[in-house]
Automatic annotation (TrEMBL), chains A, B:
InterPro entries: ACOT8-like_C, Acyl-CoA_hotdog, HotDog_dom_sf, Sec_Metab_Biosynth-Assoc, TesB_ACOT8-like_N. Residues 39-124 form the Acyl-CoA thioesterase-like N-terminal HotDog domain. Residues 160-284 form the Acyl-CoA thioesterase-like C-terminal domain. It comes from the Bacteria. This is Thioesterase family protein. SUPFAM superfamilies: Thioesterase/thiol ester dehydrase-isomerase (SSF54637).
Length: 287, 287
C-alpha cells in the first residue's frame, strides 16, 4: 500500500474506537443497570437524536442479553431527552436458543432528582453471523446519484435553524431530488434519500444502523411542513451485518393524516444488501 | 326500508355484541390484571392467531389507559399461546394529554401452574375522534378485483392442513392473482391481497384492525415456502376509525433473507382511507 493511502486509512476511526462508540458506551452499575452521559454531540435542533438514543439502549440490551445483535427493536418515546447523565434499566424477558427478548428504559432526572422515563424499548436479539446466506429479496437499492452529486450540510447555509451538532458527526449526502424543501420548493412527495456514514470514517455495525434509520431530515419537509416531527414509536429490524463502506438510506412516507405520519426507512450497504428496515410513527404540526 | 332488507340487517352482529367482542373481552381481576379465556375459535393450524391475541392485549390496555384507541402497538411474541385460561398484566408507563403509553403481558400457565409469558407489548394510545381530518396521503388503495371474483376457504378444498377454526369466523376473499400457492404455482412475488371482514357481519373497529393485519395467509407461501411462519415481532399503527363495510388488506414482503422476512400490511376501509399499517418480522423454515 502506498504510504499516503496507508496514512489515510490509519486516520479512520474503527468500530469499537470511534466517537460513536464512546458516546453510546454504557457503564454497568449493577446487573441490568447502566450509567451513561448522553452526549451533546448528537443533538438536532437542541433535541437529542432518537436514533442515537436507540443505539444507547441497544448496546445496554446487548450487554444484558445472551445474543449480540438487535434483530428487532421497538421504542416508544415518552419525553424529550437532554444531554447529560442518564440511566438504562434492562430486563431479560425470555432467553431462547436462537432469539432472546429484553426490555429497557432510558431515564433521566428532574429538578428534584426523581427519575423521569424518556424511552421504553422491547427488543428481540439474535446473532447475525449464524444466519443462512439465503436471500430471496424483491427489493432493489434506492436509485441515488453518485455521492459527489449529492449535498450535505457543509454544501450550503444550514437549512435547519438551531444548533445541530449531529451534522458534524455524520457523513450525510442528500439526493438533490429530495432536497427541494431546503430551497423552499418541497416536491410534495414523502421521500428522502441519502448516502450515510459516520464523519470519522467508522464503518457501520448493527448499532450504527439504529442511528442511520433516524438521521435524515424528516420526509414531512418534502411534503411542505416545517418544524419538529417528534417520534412516537420507532421499530427497526437489523437484517444483516453491514459491509464496510457508505450506506444508502431511503425514507418514504405514504400516509400523512390526522396529524401523524409514518416514516419507512431502508438501509442498504455497499454490497447491495438490505441491512435494516424501520418504520416510525411521528407527529407533525399542521399549519 | 323494505322488510326483507331490514331483517337481513337485524341478523348482523354489531360492535360490542359479536363473537369477536365476546372472545376478546377481558375481565378485571385487580387493577391492571385481567383474566380471559383464549377462545379455540381463532386458531390457525392449532396455534392461536397472533392478531386475535393482539386484540386481546389491546382491549386490556384500552381499559387501563386513559385513551381508548391503540395508535401504535408493538408486540414481541415469546412462546406459542394455547386456547384456555390466560391473564393479562398491564402497566401505565406514561399518561399525557394527547397520548398515553402502556405495557402489557399475556401469560398462561405451565403444567406446574407457573406463569409463562406468551407476548409482551408496548403501546401508545390516543383518541382517533380528536384527530384533524387533514389527509395528505400519497398511498392508493390496493387494486383488488370485485369481491365476487375473489376466493375464500369455502370456495375450494382447504389449502392449509390442520384445524383452522379462524376461517369460520372471517370473511376472507383472496385476490386470485395472489392465490397461486394454493394451486401449487406460487407467483414468486411476496404479495397477498384480500377483502376482509368478520363472518358475522360485525363492522371493523380499531381492535378488529389488529386482527386484520395478521389474518391473511403468509406472503411466504407466494414466495414458494411452506410451513409455519411464526411472528417474532409485530407493530401496528391504527390511523383512522374504519368506516362500515368490508376492508381491503394488502400484505407485501420485500426482503426474505437469512431465514427471516418482513410482512408489511395496509388496511383500507370502504371510504378509501388507509386505516391501519403494520409490519412484522417473522421466521421462515428454509427448504
Amino acid at each position: 500500500m502506498p504510504e499516503a493511502a496507508s496514512a489515510q486509512v490509519a486516520t479512520r476511526a474503527t468500530v469499537g474506537d470511534s466517537e460513536f462508540d464512546r458516546d453510546t458506551a454504557v457503564t454497568l452499575r449493577t446487573p441490568g443497570v447502566y450509567d451513561i452521559g448522553l452526549s451533546a454531540g448528537w443533538t438536532i435542533i437542541n433535541a437529542v437524536n432518537g436514533g442515537y438514543l436507540l443505539a444507547v439502549l441497544g448496546r445496554a440490551l446487548a450487554d444484558t442479553l445472551p445474543h449480540p445483535d438487535p434483530f428487532t427493536i421497538s421504542a416508544h418515546y415518552l419525553t424529550a431527552s437532554q444531554p447529560g447523565p442518564a440511566v438504562v434499566r434492562t430486563e431479560t424477558v425470555r432467553t431462547g436458543r436462537t432469539l432472546s427478548t429484553g426490555q429497557a428504559s432510558l431515564l433521566q432526572y428532574d429538578d428534584e432528582g426523581r427519575e423521569v422515563e424518556r424511552i421504553r424499548v422491547l427488543a428481540s436479539y439474535g446473532d447475525l453471523d449464524t444466519l443462512p446466506d439465503d436471500v430471496r429479496t424483491a427489493a432493489r437499492p434506492p436509485a441515488l446519484p453518485p455521492m459527489e452529486q449529492c449535498f450535505g450540510p457543509e454544501d450550503g447555509p444550514a437549512p435547519v435553524d438551531g444548533s445541530s451538532a449531529i451534522t458534524e458527526r455524520l457523513m450525510l449526502k442528500l439526493d438533490p431530488s429530495t432536497l427541494g424543501w431546503a430551497l423552499g420548493q418541497p416536491s410534495g412527495k414523502g421521500e428522502m434519500r441519502a448516502w450515510f456514514g459516520l464523519a470519522d470514517g467508522r464503518d457501520a455495525d448493527p448499532f450504527s444502523l439504529l442511528l442511520a434509520v433516524d438521521a435524515l431530515p424528516p420526509t414531512a419537509f418534502e411534503i411542505g411542513l416545517t418544524g419538529w416531527v417528534p417520534t412516537v414509536e420507532l421499530t427497526a429490524h437489523v437484517r444483516s451485518r453491514p459491509a464496510p463502506g457508505p450506506l444508502r438510506v431511503s425514507i418514504t412516507t405514504r400516509n400523512l393524516a390526522g396529524g401523524f405520519l409514518e416514516e419507512d426507512a431502508e438501509v442498504w450497504d455497499s454490497a447491495d444488501r438490505l441491512v435494516a428496515q424501520s418504520r416510525q410513527l411521528a407527529r407533525v404540526r399542521l399549519p
